[in-house]
Amino acid sequence: MKVKYFPDTDTLLVNFSDGKIVDTRDLNEDVLVELDDVGHVVSMTIEHAKQQTDVAEFSYQMATA
Questions:
Q1: d(CA 2, CA 24)
Q2: Where along the chain do its domains lie?
Q3: C-alpha–C-alpha distance, residues 58 and 19, integer Å
Q4: Could you tell me which of 10, 19, 41, 64 has the fewest CB atoms within 10 Å of its CB?
């Protein structure tokens, strides 16, 4: 998974895989989900990210087995 933030457009891009995008669906006016040919999520684009998320506080926690 890769997360990129573009401050010039306030856009957050979350890539879950390197699959080929064949469809894009709008979840709302600011969130797009890109799907591969079998319907798996490849990436998510969040416009106006500072209003939608807490970009400055982004973190993750590794789960243990």
A1: 18
A2: 2-54
A3: 24
A4: 64
